[in-house]
Design a protein that fits this description.
By secondary structure, the chain is an alpha/beta fold. The protein is built from 7 helices and 9 strands. The protein has helices spanning about 20-30, 60-65, 95-100, 100-115, 125-130, 140, 170-190; strands at about 1-5, 35-40, 45-50, 55-60, 75, 85-90, 120, 150, 155-160. Helix 1 links the parallel strand 1 (about 1-5) and strand 2 (about 35-40). Helix 1 packs across helix 7. The longest helix has 21 residues, at about 170-190.
Length: about 190
């Protein structure tokens, strides 16, 4: 199965959380998964991560290519039918950069309507709630720790809080690994 990894740039404040992306790649590599990082090639205001002030405009795809491992593709070039699951690392860029993106909305609609699994972390739940409603995994996430994940069987959505509930990479890695492991196991059964 091929996995799609949605990136929103490079850097927590205006893109994808770099640590969550790398930990996702690591978990996917451990399971021998084939994955493709994607981003949309549009320019948006960036954030100076040192001062947290708005900075110049940057292209989301070019920024995401920094952590795309040479595999990054423009989301418009992707045939969504080729992918069996969507993985969404966190980062505020999801909310700021993709809130009004028709292409990203079409991607989300494809995975939800096809009942293909979606796995998200950290701010990824807020992003999913833009499309699926604020009650998505609301009760399940209240006491969820960074080392664990939850699952909405009706919508086929996995979630781990990652850096929303920890400052440590190892702890976030435990939750991401558990979520990716469950996702891969479910795909093997199908």
């Amino acid at each position: 199965m091929k996995y799609l990894v949605l990136l929103a740039g490079c850097g927590l404040g205006d893109g994808s959380c770099i640590e969550e992306v790398i930990l996702t790649y690591t978990a996917l590599d451990q399971h021998g998964c084939d994955y493709t990082p994607v981003a949309e090639g549009v320019s948006v205001p960036s954030i100076d991560h040192l001062t947290e002030q708005t900075a110049e405009k940057r292209n989301i795809l070019i920024e995401a290519a920094r952590i795309g491992r040479g595999r990054i593709r423009e989301i418009r070039e992707i045939d969504l039918e080729e992918y069996g699951a969507l993985i969404i690392p966190g980062g505020l860029g999801l909310l700021n950069n993709y809130r009004n993106s028709e292409r990203v909305k079409a991607c989300m609609t494809h995975f939800v309507s096809s009942r293909k699994p979606i796995a998200a972390m950290c701010a990824g739940i807020d992003f999913l709630r833009l499309f699926l409603g604020n009650d998505l995994l609301a009760d399940e996430t209240k006491d969820l720790t960074a080392e664990s994940y939850c699952f909405d069987a009706g919508k086929n959505i996995y979630y781990t809080p990652a850096f929303r509930k920890t400052a440590g990479c190892h702890t976030a890695q435990m939750g991401i690994n558990a979520m990716i492991d469950a996702l891969c196991q479910a795909q093997t059964v199908r």
